[in-house]
Amino acid sequence: MNRMVLLVVLALGLATAGCDRVGARDDDGRPVVLTTFTVLADIAANVAGDRLRVESITKPGAEIHGYEPTPGDIRRAAQADLIVDNGLNLEAWFAKFVADLDVPHVVASDGVRTIDIAADAYAGKPNPHAWMSPLNVQLYADNLARAFTELDPDGAQQYAANAAAYRTALQQVQDDLVTRLAALPPTQRALVTCEGAFSYLARDAGLTERYIWPVNAEQQATPQQVTGVIEFVRSAAVPAVFCESTVSDDPMRQVASATGARLGGVLYVDSLSEPDGPVPTYLELIRHDADTVVAGLTGSAAR
Ligand SMILES: [Zn+2]
Predict the structure, then answer these.
(1) Burial of 300 (0-12, 13-18, 19+ CB in 10 A)
(2) For labelling alongside 121, which of 27, 80, 226, 253 has CA 20 to 30 A away?
């Protein structure tokens, strides 16, 4: 979108903004924190407690890498009190219009020790999926507490306390995963997925990572990508392979049938489920993925 079109869209958006947002403000009067996707919204809500109204631009189940913002999204962003994005090029679609808005903005992943993507067109760029390691999300919580304190200084103590409690919960999930993986023979600690979204979790939990494509924006597997994963699964005798909730698992079915590995189940990465689904929060997302991976690799039923 060029700048002129953007300004027109923005003006149109502001002209109609009164109807929906004023209603929200009248409801509870809290400052609005707008995040780019559901996982980030839940992490932010844990730190915000009930002092801020945290929303997500994209809905549960949405594909976030190639998302196209609507005029309504731009309107919401222009009216927010604080915008939170993941950064690391995850929301290239978002950065384009945020740059023109006069709204405070915080990058949740600021300070994370990044891992570069090794393959394909993304080679050398940082892997955006930093939230897939609970240890990184501890840093997200600190960054959010700092940003919320700037927005609402009266809430400083509460944000610090919320972030500290959330850090503890994140550490428990991390420690539990590492303990359970330690029971596996080292050669079986391999995580084979559709998207290369698990680099940070693999690093922090001692897993070897293999994937079909690096980022979900390209969900067309090439024959070379599928063949490469098949060769790895065969050579390492990996018992189970996995795919994520927001993409087609067809290429991973090919891998499974070519190698005899089981399809170990659905992993959640780029989106939470609906509130009544299996992963309505980030902590449940990580626990679900840990359960699924451990059950797949050990041949036991998921907890
Ligand atoms: Zn992704």
Answers:
(1) exposed
(2) 253
